[in-house]
């Protein structure tokens, strides 16, 4: 009986242990695999995401930078060109005015002053010209135009042009240019430079009168 019981117990224990071990191993393996998979997936995902993000960011940044640079360059170039043109025009006008004014002023001032002064004086210089023209113009114009204009024009043009052009050009030029350009330019353009006279005479006349 003892032997039989031993054998039976062995068999039973084997079966029970197998079943128990299977269940235990299943539970343990599930938990272990979850933890392992979490760790592995984290590491793998980090590496993969790094590589993917690097490639994606490179492509995206290239496209974005191209678009941004185009827009930025357009805005920058507009601002730069405005500033550059202002500086260049100031320098160019000084040189051009020195050369042109000497030749042009003698011929133009006689013809243009008579025609322009009538129209400009009525609209712009009504208050100023009554006081200034009577006292100053007679004495100054003879001496200044010959002696001072060459020296003064560089300084005057820089100071006056900025002040005069903003105030006078907006108000006067719209009205004056239509009348003056039709009458004056037909006579003057034969003797005077086409491009210079349009810009110069409008600015010079206003600056001289202000002085």
Give a short overview.
This protein is mainly α and 211 residues long. It has helices spanning 2-123, 126-188, 194-210. The relative contact order is 0.08.
**What is the chain-wise order of helices and strands?**
HHH
Mean pLDDT: 71
Estimate the strand proportion. under 5%
Report the total helices.
Answer: 3
**Oligomeric state as shown:** single chain
Structural class: mainly alpha
Q: Helix amount, in percent?
A: over 70%
Biggest sheet character: none
Q: What's the β-strand tally?
A: 0
CA distance, first residue to last residue? 141 Å
Overall 3D form = rod-shaped
Overall radius of gyration = 46 Å
Which blocks of ≥5 consecutive residues have pLDDT under 50?
Answer: none
Protein name: PUM-HD domain-containing protein
InterPro entries: ARM-like, PUM-HD
GO molecular function, one term: RNA binding
């Amino acid at each position: 009986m003892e032997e039989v019981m031993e054998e039976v117990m062995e068999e039973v224990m084997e079966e029970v242990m197998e079943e128990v071990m299977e269940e235990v191993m299943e539970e343990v393996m599930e938990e272990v695999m979850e933890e392992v998979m979490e760790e592995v997936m984290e590491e793998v995902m980090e590496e993969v995401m790094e590589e993917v993000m690097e490639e994606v960011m490179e492509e995206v940044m290239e496209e974005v930078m191209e678009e941004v640079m185009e827009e930025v360059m357009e805005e920058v170039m507009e601002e730069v060109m405005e500033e550059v043109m202002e500086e260049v025009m100031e320098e160019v006008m000084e040189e051009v005015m020195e050369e042109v004014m000497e030749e042009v002023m003698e011929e133009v001032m006689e013809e243009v002053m008579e025609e322009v002064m009538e129209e400009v004086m009525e609209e712009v210089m009504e208050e100023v010209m009554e006081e200034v023209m009577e006292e100053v113009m007679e004495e100054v114009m003879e001496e200044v135009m010959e002696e001072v204009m060459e020296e003064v024009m560089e300084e005057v043009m820089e100071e006056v042009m900025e002040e005069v052009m903003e105030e006078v050009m907006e108000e006067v030029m719209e009205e004056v240019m239509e009348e003056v350009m039709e009458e004056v330019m037909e006579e003057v353009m034969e003797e005077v430079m086409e491009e210079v006279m349009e810009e110069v005479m409008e600015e010079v006349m206003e600056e001289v009168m202000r002085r």
